[in-house]
Design brief:
By secondary structure, the protein is an alpha/beta fold. It folds into two domains: about 60 residues, 2,3-Dihydroxybiphenyl 1,2-Dioxygenase, domain 1; about 70 residues, 2,3-Dihydroxybiphenyl 1,2-Dioxygenase, domain 1 (Roll), CATH 3.10.180.10. Helices cover about 20% and strands about 30% of the residues. The protein has three helices and eight strands; from the N terminus they run βαβββαβαβββ. A four-stranded mixed sheet has the order 1-4-3-2. A four-stranded mixed sheet has the order 5-8-7-6, with helices on one face. The longest helix has 13 residues.
């Protein structure tokens, strides 16, 4: 069995967050979705678990970070082309996300970042390693 990654995000409004991630092209897995959590499928190995604050609190002993004010982590997702990166960002912005920093084009890699409705930071990028500068 391949290893899987589950990114757990506390969200203020589960329904709105599900709509946001659906607009990005993620599919909902109803088997792991209820009134307190939603499993959004990125790929066969990567999932985003959207959890109400109450549900998320059941897994931790710390306070939930206010990700609109502070950064805790940036999750990055590689895509297949610069066009896919830009199209993904168009969807994120149209769905209510924010682009907090300008796109970065390193020649071999295009990198763009967005904040979801709760301020969680996500990055999408395309890297063409054949264009990586030899040092």
């Amino acid at each position: 069995m391949k290893k899987q990654v589950f990114i757990n995000l506390p969200v203020a409004d589960l329904k709105r967050s599900m709509e946001f991630y659906t607009a990005l092209g993620f599919q909902n897995n109803p088997q792991f979705t209820d009134d307190t959590a939603a499993c959004m499928v990125i790929s066969e190995e990567i999932y985003v678990m959207l959890l109400t604050h109450e549900k998320f609190s059941g897994f931790i002993k710390k306070e939930i970070a206010d990700t609109k004010a502070t950064a805790a982590v940036i999750n990055a997702l590689s895509l297949q082309s610069n066009d896919e990166v830009n199209g993904f960002m168009d969807k994120a912005i149209a769905a209510g996300g924010k682009e907090p920093v300008e796109a970065k084009d390193y020649g071999f890699m295009l990198q763009r970042s967005f904040e979801d409705l709760d301020g969680h930071l996500l990055e999408v990028f395309f890297m063409d390693i054949s264009k990586f500068p030899i040092q």
